[in-house]
Design goal:
single chain, 410 residues, alpha/beta, Rossmann fold, 7-stranded parallel beta sheet, 16 helices
């Protein structure tokens, strides 16, 4: 007899362009899981555009192909992770109970809605799974660090098992006392097939030549892509300085907007950098930027992951990133899919870009290695981790329904 699927309810503040295709994949390809997603609200174009420099809506489907429910209205709400009280759903416990879950997935505790969900699950005796991307570099330093660690330990004890999106996430969990037996790999991922298909279509000689002509680059120029919010943490000025050191054959393609846009333009003018400015690009537009580029540069001071690396590698584009970009530790294989440098080290970033440029000049093709490596960071692997963690927790939970995980005892 076929066992009943595990009923999983995921609780998120709002639809996210990276989670939605994963949820569709679960619904379409994993019959052992019966997924329902609860969203606090759906942001307006203005709310979605906070930090991007303009109002917009994602131009890829966010709620197609899986079961979901929106719990409230977006008016007057905030969706950024820095606003704990920005979005609240006071009856989230009733909403969760109505889905009759065997297990609940919560992505952290940056919103009061998530904390309410965790409290409700404890009251309802429903086990919970964590899937966040905090790292040992997250949180404050110095005097506030012990309080942050205490809060993190306290919140982690509200979960029964943990999905790790990558190596840095695993180190974070271990550093706060989570045993390896409760950590399951569920890597951060994007729709690799969509980006690969777009790359196959756009990187043929005719399309690629047109795209590069549009940004003022010849076939022999070295095009470096910076894609992201133009804010201090992402260090876009470092991107300008690193490309400036490459000389006149390099072009910096910028796909993004934000508070440092004017400063970045001014710096490029001072340094004589050939700047191709695209501004904010929506999801369906990104493949054109990848197709026109020879390398992605991510000079961030830190990133809890950096899904732009997944997108680049799926498009066959090598990456240069700093060691504080969590995705780099998992996705960059030196010399095969890219190179790494220290954050703030302009000379180091330039040197690694030169290595990519030299290999490109010698007709080295990175695309096969990039795609092969990122294939291990896909929806199937993320879902396998979710299923394994769910089975582990439910097996223990059903065996001793009045017990709590051993992790709680430490």
């Amino acid at each position: 007899m076929t066992p009943q699927p595990i009923r999983v309810t995921a609780v998120l503040t709002h639809p996210v362009q990276y989670f939605s295709p994963w949820f569709r994949s679960i619904a379409a390809h994993q019959p052992a899981l019966d997924l329902t997603v609860l969203y606090g609200a759906v942001p307006s174009a203005e709310q979605q555009g906070s930090g991007f420099g303009q109002a917009f809506t994602w131009d890829v489907p966010l709620t197609d192909g899986y079961r979901f429910e929106v719990c409230g209205e977006s008016a007057g709400k905030r969706f950024d992770s820095d606003s704990f009280f920005g979005l609240d759903v006071r009856d989230i416990g009733h909403r969760i109970a109505a889905t009759r879950p065997d297990i609940v997935l919560v992505t952290g505790w940056h919103s009061v809605m998530q904390v309410r969900a965790l409290a409700a699950c404890r009251t309802l005796r429903i086990p919970t799974l964590y899937r966040g991307d905090s790292t040992v570099y997250s949180g404050p330093r110095r005097l506030l660090r012990p309080l942050w660690s205490l809060k993190s330990r306290t919140m982690l004890r509200r979960f029964d098992a943990f999905l790790s999106v990558g190596r840095d996430a695993t180190d974070y969990l271990r550093s706060l006392g989570v045993p390896d037996s409760l950590i399951f790999s569920s890597p951060h991922c994007v729709d690799n097939d969509r980006f690969a298909a777009a790359a196959d279509r756009l990187r043929c000689s005719e399309h690629r030549a047109r795209l590069r002509t549009e940004i003022g680059a010849s076939e022999t120029d070295f095009v470096v892509l910076f894609a992201g919010k133009l804010q201090d943490r992402k260090r876009p000025i470092d991107a300008v300085a690193a490309v400036a050191a490459l000389g006149s054959s390099a072009v910096l393609l910028v796909a993004g907007d934000g508070p440092l846009a004017s400063e970045m333009r001014a710096c490029a003018r001072r340094e004589g950098v050939r700047l191709a400015w695209k501004g904010f690009l929506n999801q369906s537009q990104l493949p054109e930027a990848f197709a026109a580029s020879d390398c992605l540069l991510v000079p961030s001071a830190w990133e809890s992951w950096g899904l732009i690396l997944n997108e680049a590698l799926a498009s066959g584009v090598p990456c240069v990133a700093t060691t504080r970009v969590a995705a780099a530790r998992d996705l960059i294989v030196e010399g095969e899919t890219g190179f790494v440098a220290q954050p703030g080290d302009i000379a180091g970033l330039s040197a690694q870009l030169r290595r990519v440029q030299a290999l490109r000049g010698a007709a080295h093709d990175f695309s096969a290695a990039c795609r092969a490596h990122v294939a291990s960071y896909g929806f199937a692997q993320a879902t396998d981790g979710l299923l394994a963690a769910s089975r582990h927790v439910l097996g223990r939970h059903r065996a001793t329904p009045d017990s709590v995980p051993q992790f709680y005892a430490h």
